[in-house]
Amino acid sequence: MKIRIIILFASLPLSVFAEEGISLRRASELTIENNHTIKAAEQQQLTAHRNRQAARGLYMPKISTTAAWTTLQKDLQIDINPLKPLLSDLDITPLLGLDWSYTLQKRNLGFIEADITVPLFTGGKIIAANRAAEASESAANAESRALSGKVFSELVERYFGVVLASNVVEVRALAVQAMEQHLQDITLLLENGMVTNTSLLQVNYALTKSRQELNSARSALTIARRGLSTTTCTDSIGHTTTPIFICGAIEGLDHFLERAEQGNAQLQYIDSQNELARQNIAIHRADFFPEVVAIAGGGFGHNISNILPRWAVGVGFRFTIFDGLNREYSYAAAKSTAKRAEELKTAANQDIKLLVESLYNKCIDYLQQCSSLSYAIEFANDYLTNIKVAFQEDMATSTEVIDATLALAATKIEQLEAAYNFDTTLARLLEATGESERFFDYIESINSKAIKYEE
């Protein structure tokens, strides 16, 4: 039996390798639809958007209404009838016969009124509040993008983890088949007296070990499937259709550094936090200025005295002269917060550059490793074929056949792991640049190579 590795050069999208099952793109769609972390981030975005809309309302007039029904102890009156005796000497007899009292307000009254307040000057507090709300929304959007990129990297890790585990199961199964075939050969040779019982024991031991490794690989595949189901928030996942792949080449380091500087979600989040800190300074600075508002009000009433006005307009002014140095210290604290945010931004820029460079170098290393392992697999494959022929001609031992079979399986798995590491590292690299969605461009690239094993 001959075991061979086939590296398929994909001139078509890799989704054509299987007609059924779930592709990585479909798994990504399920994750976006169902993942609770992404849903929580979407709600945070909506909250920030609503807060920004609320901040716009600070520019608008405030209109309030008041209504009441009141019963006083008694009518409010002015009564000067007791002064009549003092005026009896005057020739005003007709007037003295009149009632010299006047009701200012009846005891039962009701009213409804509306007041309008328009801010004229607030020291820039309203403008700063709106800019802060904008920055908060930008921060929420950046945080959502960062979480989405993180979840996508996790999806790639778990999806290709299933692919890797499936391939390892296949390789282990091929190794078991090869050992079983060798066991049959060694049994026939033993019956003919051409080998000793020790050779049979060696093959049995190797076969048992290979079966144990196959069972372990199957258990790992079960765990990997559960992990993928957790990320996509689905009950079960069918077999995967997007194979592990490697690329012939990727862009240079400068390209990824530039993209990270422009699109990294964490840097954008920090920029938004810096803007928040600057606007917080503006808000506290406004406390040193007076607030000026225009006011107007009017209304209707029942049994309301005619001497009371029905409307009024004016301008209000408010300024705090002394508040125990609270605003001075608050303003100083806001400036310190802004300086801290600037320092964090500088540190984050350096960390992101280092991360991108590290991930890029790892991708290149894994590509080179896959390339060198291709030659190693070809050599191990030919060596196993030759050693089997030599064994049939009694020029090689059973131990050599076992070692060659296991070496081929180990080399195959090593290349699978290198390709898997390339895929997951590439996903993290694109996450760092804020372009996780470009992962599918690499999959569908004409330079991509899918790895698949056949017996």
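the 2nd protein, sequnce then structure:
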Amino acid sequence: MQLVTYATGGDVAVGVLDGAIVVPIRNVVGEAPADMIGVVEAGAALLDRIDSGLANVSDRLELSEVDLLPAIPRPPKILCLGLNYAEHAAEGGHDLPDYPSVFMRAATSLVAHGAPVLRPRVSDQLDYEAELAVVIGKRCHDTPEADALSYVFGYTLLNDVSVRDFQRKTTQWTMGKNFDATAPMGPAIVTADELPPGADGLGIRTRLNGKTVQNASTDQMVFKVPRIISLVSQVMTLEPGDVIATGTPSGVGHARKPPLWMKPGDVIEIEVDGIGTLANPVADAPGLRSAEAA
């Protein structure tokens, strides 16, 4: 099942995405949760009710009639892995990690499918990063790797757009990873039952203005989804609706000669087999650009 968060007429709701059709889940299950975190918390029991009632619902929306929002507009936590593909670590001059490099994103950095990624006023070093993202379905802490996948609700896409010069101002990456409107997420959450365990072996790619610039497979991840969940949950309790972005493959813009930075007018697409395509135009953030970035 594919689930989206959308807005229409100022009303935010959750729907089932079926091709170019959105079925509001409240039309299927009258007392359904109002937001995606509620749907995730309700879990398999609610999904079964939605699945059994879909065929009987005639009140459907065209995808073109709604405005998609990030799949989870305000996740409790957004955790991201760096250097989780060997070739990407190498292209950046990094050693292969023996423990995952984890940083956090703020919800204010999220942007919906189709909405513009904003190049900040203070930099022109705007880089793309295609990533598989895990959506946690149940509260878990100190979870054994063998049990970790039972806590996964589904998967979505996250473009971990990075402002590279700000990322490198300190040894911590936070400032370069949290500019407003620099993390497209969506368009849909695909429930875990529709994908291979751990979403392993899926093609992952990026296209910039129609040209493929990243092309790999999730089976190349250094730390696979069960291991990631187990290690992160040793440190912090994971909650329903938490999102974990699992790192990007090689081919990013900063490693190219010359560097390939995104600029206004570009269109960036990331894609993972079985999950879909997340596409966004690039635009300048409002306000005057600084002299250094111009």
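Residues 2-68 form one domain. The mean pLDDT is 95.
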